[in-house]
Request: fold
Amino acid sequence: MSPITLKIRRKAGCDDVPLPQYMSDHAAGMDICAACDGDVVIAPGDVKLVPAGFYMAVPVGFEAQVRPRSGLALKHGITLPNSPGTIDSDYRGEVCVILGNVGRDEFVVRRSMRIAQMVIAAVHQADIAVVETLDETARGEGGFGHTGV
Reply:
């Protein structure tokens, strides 16, 4: 598979904040850093919107999925309540990350801290066909734990 080009423009005043980058040769996601002007304190149970300091143009036919970083989730209970967040190919506003604290302690987000990861994924838009019946499957309507806990 050939690489795609992700066009990124820095927000004014954010030259010190690292742009998204892959942290290992085979990483699926690029780390996103915080571009907050001051510390952002997230109390247990709180949700905050944290700017990332850049704008981007995702190619048509792709989306950017914003996901939690596993280390922050495990060690501090920091997650993304809308995970994965989707950034569509026609969005041109500043990239921001919705962070939630499901941990027991306050968490402080500092400028340039790696707060999330972003995966670029192919998408397909579907045509909708209204029908009277659907094909039968062995599973049928089973869901929400029907195969056991």
